[in-house]
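Hi R.,

Here's the chain you asked about this morning:
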Amino acid sequence: MTILIGGDLVPTSSNSELFINAETESLLGGKLHKIWNNGAFRIFNLETPLDDHTNPIKKCGINFHASKKTINGIRELKPSLVTLSNNHILDQGYGGLKSTIDLLSKNHIPYIGVGNNKNDAGKPFISNIGDRKVGFYACAEHEFSIATNNSPGANPFDPFDSLEHIEDLKKQCDYVIILYHGGKEYYRYPSPYLQKVCRKMIDKGADLVVCQHSHCIGCYEEYSGASIIYGQGNFIFDDTESDFLKTSLILEINLLNNYSINYIPVIKNGNKIRLAEEDERSKILSEFQLRSEQILKQGFIEENYKLFAEKYLNNYLRSLSGLNKYVCLFDKYIFKGKLTNTLYKSKKLLAIQNYIECEAHRELLLEGVKNKINQD
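And the predicted structure, written out as tokens:
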């Protein structure tokens, strides 16, 4: 009667052989491997297309890609369900998405969160776990992977459609779990908007909302008799040695005893992961608890996010400036942002604010930008 939820999984160049050879006990370590296999239902986010041919789409940021043969290790992890609703699943185009879906289907691995169009991608997954009917729904914020009315991709979070989907799903199930791929990477707290979205999902019937994508452990909130996890960190994803990526949580949902959540701390160990030992476990959970208490303080989320935004503003402005990357680096590290501050006076910042904040301007700007990209 337990559901285990892992975070983001990507076979990388450093551990792809372990996946290809299905050496999952080596990837997880003996203790964690035993815990994972004891789960009645196991789910994680597969955040890369599986395809032996590369055809990277136009996007900002990195294009992920993993060999088809890594399906051996993914299958050996015995997932009951895989979510594909994330910002990388279209990195290798429609061909990469199709290859991934075909591989999962061939290996009898259920998946959610993608489809041939937006309507198809929004379909939930319902499973009988013990004597409980549990519904799963996966959606992602809008980046370069999103399905449209006429094209394949990931299920987008839509404040109109997604909330209706959740409300309908609750009518069919005892429990509803949402896998939401969103929030800012490497930020351990919710933004005011993210908290509003997750709470509204609870209002519509969700019993648990899990925010993935941030690549770090965040905090949790109990709201209206339900739970929100604002960031659980990665599952198996050997990216960098950043402190943010060294720890994560696996969520253990116990459907008995009126539904409870146990947090299983995990640490990165080279290109593998391991169950955290007692001292590490205590530290991870105490910091997780502290952050969860902080967000209960009136105004904390808004004030902390304001400081975070101030820290990152110049990065965004430099990106929009049209300056080449060397000038941007010079401005960031030598001039400490003085060039950017000179380029963006108050009047220009007000125009940017209006173009982003006003629905009519934002919609028109996005449509024009997309058309221009397609013409290039």
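Residues 138 and 321 are 35 Å apart (CA to CA).

Let me know if you need anything else.
M.
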